[in-house]
Amino acid sequence: MSNQSNQILKNTNAQILDEFNASIMFDKELYAQDIKGSIAHSQMLAEQGILTLEEQKAIETGLLQVKNEIESGEFKFSLAYEDIHMAVETRLTEIIGEPGKRLHTARSRNDQVATDFRLYVQDKSLSIKAQLKELVETFVSVASKHTTTLIPGMTHLQHAQPLNFGYHLLAYANMFKRDFERFESSYERNNYCPLGSAALAGTPHNINRVSTSQKLGFIAPTSHAMDTVSDRDFALEILFNISTAMMHISRISEELILWSSYEFQFVRMSDEYATTSSIMPQKKNPDVPELLRGKTGRVYGNLISLFTVMKGLPLAYNKDTQEDKEGVFDSVKTMEISISILNEVIKTMIVNVDKMQNACKIGHLSATDFADYLVTKQNMPFRTAYYLTKDVVTKANSLNKDISELNIDEIRSSNEELKDINEEILMFLDLRNSMNARTSLGGTATSQTVSQIEIFKEWLKN
Questions:
Q1: What pLDDT, on the 0 to 100 scale, is given for residue 80?
Q2: Of 196, 278, 291, 442, which has the highest C-beta tally within 10 A?
Q3: Which residues form the Fumarate lyase N-terminal domain (predicted)?
Q4: 462 confidence band (pLDDT: 50, 70, 90)
């Protein structure tokens, strides 16, 4: 191979290695956090006499100029910078000269990136919390309009017992409230400042980590430098929280897909969130809920990916953790847009009340009420009542009726033991009465659903 060919190969390999090693093209997402952390660090250094006030002022002014350049699009990111920290520091030094070289005193890129990334995760935890609260409010609002709308409650996707649609929607309100609480808990648990941990063992400089923490909005500094620079639990937590919330989004998406099908026709989605087939003009496909359901797998992958990166790392910092950010950035963006879209889908969907209520007449939803009546009013053992109820269901099937549509003679003729049953049983078989009979705490009765809505409304005020 010629010397020229060897040089070309070396240059090519060097370029590939630069691309492989650099993180600037994705960790530039952290520019605002990096600049915020650097300003706080410079202010603390000045307070401790490590920087002069003039140096600190020049650094802060220069950092704000870099921020403006990035946000205006004037700043040009390059692989030569390797990462966002070097990009900002290099440009700062170009602007203000010698004082820019003093900024990195008493810190390492290890604690710097841990701080930037934690600030990002904390910021996103707060914004996603706010979105989740808005989503809960939407579910509660729609639920409040349907506290008397009957819908078949299902287990194993088989008709089971009558519910009201508001009650069904509140199940999702509860899920998203738990998601809110998970983000809230994670925020509080991770609200500690890494800056000042340096490379892994702290620094001999006379720094004040409490001051830096306060300036950045943390509760306090982290307590162990080596754990701090290698810790990515906060990133795993937000990925887990997002994965759980996306699982809940996927579940309601699946129901929306079912409910909007010809077989159900319980809801109709706005044309904005469903599209026609490319060759079948009569079809309207639930594309948006299907995408929401599909994107859940994407965020699961990001969670497992970071778990896999972290599982074998020795203390302290390792370059492997450069792989911690892209998955988090991707999952956060997926979460933000998914919540926003689902919120609009729920707000704009049209509920087909008649279809829901007619579906309740399929599957003998008040059969359990018949058995409960025999237990409470006839003092029968439940197992005996269970088998007598099966006979009544068989009778209804033979007449092509739902159990709720039988008259008293048809019920009495279904089994000899029921020949004298009281006509009040017809009240128990009524579907609306069946739904409203479930008044236990957390039950589906309209009275209980209204109470649950009021509790949610109080929570939403806080």
A1: 83
A2: 196
A3: 12-301
A4: confident
CB contact at 8 A, 207 and 45: yes
Give the amino acid at 96. Answer: I
Whether residue 328 contacts residue 240, with contact meaning beta carbons closer than 8 Å, is answered with no
Give the global pTM: 0.93
Looking at the DSSP bridge assignments, the partners of residue 27 are none
Active site residue 168: no
Max CA distance (Å), the chain: 106
Nearest to 219 by CA among 237, 192, 199: 192
* 247: Cβ contacts below 8 Å, ≥ 6 apart: 296
277 is catalytic: yes
Task: Note the pLDDT tens digit of each residue in 199-217.
Answer: 999 999 999 999 999 999 9
- The rounded distance, in Å, linking the Cα atoms of 33 and 283 is 47
Residue 246: strand pairing partners: none
Please state the three-class secondary structure of the chain as a single string: CCHHHHHHHHHHHHHHHHHHHCCHHHHHHHHHHHHHHHHHHHHHHHHCCCCCHHHHHHHHHHHHHHHHHHHHCCCCCCHHHCCHHHHHHHHHHHHHCHHHHHCCCCCCHHHHHHHHHHHHHHHHHHHHHHHHHHHHHHHHHHHHCCCCCEEEEEECCEEEEEEEHHHHHHHHHHHHHHHHHHHHHHHHHCCEECCCCCCCCCCCCCCCHHHHHHHCCCCEECCCHHHHHHCCHHHHHHHHHHHHHHHHHHHHHHHHHHHCCCCCCCEECCHHHCEECCCCCCCEECHHHHHHHHHHHHHHHHHHHHHHHHCCCCCCCCHHHHHHHHHHHHHHHHHHHHHHHHHHHHHHCEECHHHHHHHCCCCCCCHHHHHHHHHHHCCCCHHHHHHHHHHHHHHHHHCCCCHHHCCHHHHHCCCHHHCCCCCCHHHHHCHHHHHHCCCCCCCCCHHHHHHHHHHHHHHHHC
Hey, what domains does the chain have and what are their CATH numbers? Answer: 15-105 (1.10.275.10), 110-359 (1.20.200.10), 363-430 (1.10.40.30)
Q: How far apart are the first and last CA of the chain?
A: 73
Catalytic residue, chosen from 2, 72, 156, 440, is 156
78, 185, 277, 340: the catalytic one is 277
Summarize pLDDT for 9-20 with one digit per residue, the tens: 566 666 676 677
Cβ pair 60, 42 in contact under 8 A: yes
